[in-house]
Amino acid sequence: MIEVAKHDTIGDTAYRNIRNDIIFGRLKPSERLRLEPLRRRYNVSVTTLREILNRLTSDGFVVAEGQKGFEVAPVSDSDLREVADLRILLECHALERSFAQGDLDWEAGVVAAYHKLHVLEKQMMAGETSVRENWKNADWQFHRALIGGCGSRRLMELHGSVFDKYLRYQMLTLTFRGEKAAAEHRSLLDAALAHDAAAAARVLRDHILGGVEHSIANREPGKK
């Protein structure tokens, strides 16, 4: 997910909002993106909107249909598996670097991010689905904190793009994996505090692939 910058333009804000609306499912897979309704919804000019949609096409969240215009990128099981494999590759590499270089401040950031995620996971397990987006934001923040000590801005940017594509599939899922996912997050925290990158990589792989199978089995009807 893209964080708010101090000097965002109207176009930057609209880009971030449309991107997030695709990720969180408010704009559905394969939905036609008609310029006039979108222009009113996001309060931008048609010219700016076209620039945003072209940018989102480059990002992989929108498909340009030639003379037909734009639509939200479709979803498929094969694409999800490919995204997951790429996330594993990038995140395991970033974990190894981060665990080797992370200092006390990095550890404190990981603990703080985990605490927020843990609280929201308990609320989700109690059936409080109204916190669903906050929970996934906290999930993103925790995984970003884990790799935050890697020392590579490019790696963080690339990971963020792939994570957002993975997250999009998660938001199409009707249910939460519950105790299993929460336990994996706890194991990742323990591995981080021990600076045990090998253990973290094993947990992370199971965590991501478990999320893939859960997403495929529990995706909203019509989103296969």
Q: What is the topological layout?
A:
Blueprint: H1 10-23, E1 32-33, H2 35-42, H3 46-59, E2 62-64, E3 70-72, H4 77-101, H5 104-125, H6 132-147, H7 153-170, H8 179-193, H9 197-218
Antiparallel strand pairs: 1-3, 2-3
Helix pairs in contact: 1-3, 4-7, 4-9, 5-6, 5-8, 6-7, 8-9
Characterization of this structure:
- The structure is a single chain.
- This protein is mainly alpha-helical and 224 residues long.
- The chain folds into 2 domains: 10-72, Orthogonal Bundle (Arc Repressor Mutant, subunit A); 77-218, GntR ligand-binding domain-like (Four Helix Bundle (Hemerythrin (Met), subunit A), Up-down Bundle).
- Helices cover 69% and strands 4% of the residues.
- It has helices at 10-23, 35-42, 46-59, 77-101, 104-125, 132-147, 153-170, 179-193, 197-218, and strands at residues 32-33, 62-64, 70-72.
- The chain has a 3-stranded antiparallel sheet with strand order 1-3-2.
- It is globular.
- Keywords: DNA-binding, Transcription, Transcription regulation.
- This is GntR family transcriptional regulator.
- Pfam families: FCD, GntR.
- What's the CATH H-level homologous superfamily of the largest domain? GntR ligand-binding domain-like
Rg of Cα set: 18 Å
Overall mean confidence score, pLDDT:
92
Provide the CATH top-level class of the largest domain: Mainly Alpha
Strand order of the largest sheet: 1-3-2
Instruction: Name the overall outline.
Output: globular
Fraction of residues in β-strands: under 5%
Major β-sheet profile: 3 strands, antiparallel
Overall number of domains: 2
String of helices and strands = HEHHEEHHHHHH
Instruction: Report the end-to-end length measured between terminal Cα atoms.
Output: 23 Å
Question: Any guess at the CATH architecture of the largest domain?
Answer: Up-down Bundle
**Class per helix and strand makeup:** mainly alpha
How many beta strands in the DSSP annotation? 3
- SS summary, helix count: 9
Q: Kindly state the percentage of residues in helix.
A: 55-70%
Query: The CATH topology of the largest domain, please?
Result: Four Helix Bundle (Hemerythrin (Met), subunit A)
Low-confidence stretches: none
Pfam families: FCD, GntR
Domain HTH gntR-type: 8-75
InterPro entries: GntR_C, TF_FadR/GntR_C, Tscrpt_reg_HTH_GntR, WH-like_DNA-bd_sf, WH_DNA-bd_sf
Keywords: DNA-binding, Transcription, Transcription regulation
